[in-house]
Amino acid sequence: MPDHDSTTLLTRQTKRRRVDIGVKRAVGSTIFTRARESLLDSMNQSHGPDQDADCSLVAHSHLGTNGDGEKSNVLRKLLKRANSYEDTIMPFPGATIISQLLKNNMGKNGGINPSNKQGSGALSSGGSEIQAEDACSNSSRDSPLDCLSPGSLAPSQPLSLSSFDLDRLSDEHLRAKRARVENIIRGMSHSPLVRLNTSDHNQESSRENESSSSRGGVVGVGEVYRENKRKQRLPQQQHSFTQLVCSRQEQRQEERRQLKLQLEDMQKQLRQLQEKFYQIYDSETEEEENGEKEDGNLSEDSIRSDGLEERHRDRGQHTHDNLSELDPGLFLDRARALLREQALIDGEMEEDVDRRVEGDRNGERVMKRRGGAAGGGRHLAETLKQQLNCAVSQVVDIVVKGFSSPKQAVSSPTPNYHPSNQRLHCFGDGIVPSPLDSFGGLSGRLSGVPTPNDQTEALPLVVRKSGGSGGENTNPSLPPPPPPPLPHHPSLHPSSLTASLGFNPPSFRHPFPLPLMGYPFQNPLGSHGGGAGYAPGPKDHHRSSPDSMDMTRETVSLRTKMASLGGSHLSHHHHRQSSPTQHGPEGLSLSLIKSECGDLQDMADISPYSGSTIQEGLSPNHLKKAKLMFFYTRYPSSNMLKMYFSDVKFNRCITSQLIKWFSNFREFYYIQMEKFARQAINEGVTAAEELTVGRDAELFRALNMHYNKANDFEVPDRFLEVAQVTLREFFNAIVAGKDADPSWKKAIYKVICKLDSEVPEVFKSPSCLQELLHD
DNA sequence: CACGCCCCTG
DNA sequence: CAGGGGCGTG
């Protein structure tokens, strides 16, 4: 049953949403907002042509029995009148046709001569409807169960109704059943049998109703009376009543058609969004597979979209079949079911307003219903909005999840990463500061397997400082902040992105920050005017966000590849690919390698939007690299650091942190020097010349343990020389008693700082660690 | 004032 | 190794 499914899905969604945090939640809320706006907008629109009666709950047989001649006039009047209190009706679309019919009927009973067809509309207007509702409320308070007694309905459906009584709050589909039953009942209302049955039960009340018709309402009579009365009087007041019925029906049908149309609209948008994702994803996959021969292959996107969809479905199955909701048909079904359900809920709401809720089953729903009774049944729209919100956000979640956890979804990660690397390169140029950059630099590149635990000390500092310094979005604990002003990439078409997604560009706020989606993933070649990358076709704008998601997959794949192939292969790879961008080996294309070697991995795990190559944080690998660099330079300049950490988006914080690192390195270094110098003095060494620092020296071992713990780097001889000089400097200074001077070390520093040697070029490569440590 | 470095502390 | 205070420099 669709209704039941929708309930289940809602529950699941609720669970999901509870689990979901940060971005996804933001996405969901954004979608919800947009969906609600859209829905409300459409609800405010004028009624469209009556084309679809699928959602109608009222039997059309009534319409068939009506005379058409006067109907239009009556309808006009009724509609006019309806418009007069449209404020009452329109905001409460949840009121069902049935209830409206009943009300009208009651009003008619109160003040209308059954034979007076023309005046029925006007006579039934005014407060009769409200009075009728009040009457229902009052009466239901007196006898709550009267409002929805199975006996008051068709005897042919007692089982369904009783079960409905039992489970109405938890079993949605029974409401649909009830709707059908009521329709059937209404259809059968002309049958003498039905009349007989109902009149048997309600003769007194019926008489009472008739006798008290002057009151313009059925005060004190419960819903059961209305039901029976309706059935009884239908034959007598057929014309006026059916006219009212028709008007009400049409009114309600209009509302429902409208809602349904809106739902379909939303569903279309969903489908479009789906397709966009598929297309993007597909094109991305294709790029990965096709490597550098991207141009001209984009046309295959559509061809391959089916397979892609299949992949997505598979992915969805992996993720609790959530992706099944991506199916527009299912969504539409759910929407329809929702409409039916809502209509029934509202009808029931009015029928048993005060009927106490047995048990706590679906207490929330009950509360919702009661709230609707009190607030006017606005929850049809609310429920629809919620459902839409849930569906849309879930779809987005699924897609995002699919992209962010590619290993689950993609059975065979594509082996080629070049295009995206180039894109990353472009992204990495730092044109667009990505808030997700803050997630960068977290994993241990050297540890073949990325572990979240690799996110260690270095990052927090940068994050904090970046946040404090204002410009940088680096707080990983927060969802991506509002994206910076739209990117200025020349080849980017941000608006087309939203347009292509089937939403109104001006109003629709894409769940993904547009800069993140559209900008950073543009073809890097485009930024150089080369245009060799992707044909600026209609799908160009599609690759924005999926690229970011692809990054995660690519990163994962790259890591796998790295583990097996080693860094040099990759670096060559990238050299070839990055040649059009005029970047040397130390260029950003290599920085891609570095980040993809693991720095981004954890970003990928954290956020589906990861995709930045330039990191705003320093990773443990950066620290290791800095330590190795310390073997060459003790006093690196800021410029040198920038050159040798080209994969880091430098800012004050990064620079300060790197400088601080080297300061700490020096501190340890000098502490060791002083310690060993004093130790030598204590051991009786009298001449500095006796002090030598070899690879087997204790001093060296201490230093090497600190800067080259794994001992997987061959310390240059020059460092040994410098260490020896430093040790002797300390020795001499101490022997000379200079250590009495508080700043006696500064002279030594001056000496040592001149002993810096050139750091090998290989350190400029982000992949230097792989290359160096594998030598 | 900003920056870099040292020194100290945790 | 990070944070913070202090100091010197441009």
Would you kindly provide a written description of the structure presented here, covering whatever features stand out?
The radius of gyration is 37 Å and the shape is elongated. Helices cover 63% and strands 0% of the residues. It contains 34 helices and no strands. The longest helix has 53 residues, at 238-290. It starts with a helix and ends with a helix. It has a domain at 620-772: Arc Repressor Mutant, subunit A (Orthogonal Bundle), CATH 1.10.10.500. The structure holds a DNA duplex (10 and 10 nucleotides). Residues 201-210, 293-323 have a biased composition (Basic and acidic residues). Residues 109-128, 234-246 have a biased composition (Polar residues). Residues 249-276 form a coiled coil. This is Prospero domain-containing protein.
**Biggest sheet descriptor:** none
Number of discrete helical segments = 34
Seen as an oligomer or otherwise, the chain set is single chain
Q: Remind me, CATH topology of the domain at 620-772? A: Arc Repressor Mutant, subunit A
Helical amount among residues, as a percent range? 55-70%
Count of extended strands: 0
Give the CATH H-level superfamily of the domain at 620-772.
Homeo-prospero domain
Class based on secondary structure composition and strand pairing: mainly alpha
Distance between the termini: 64 Å
- Name the poorly predicted regions: 1-170, 188-242, 281-333, 343-380, 395-411, 413-612
Overall shape: it is: elongated
CATH class of the domain at 620-772 reads Mainly Alpha
Query: Whole-number radius of gyration?
Result: 37 Å
Mean pLDDT: 47
Strand content: under 5%
The CATH architecture of the domain at 620-772 comes to Orthogonal Bundle
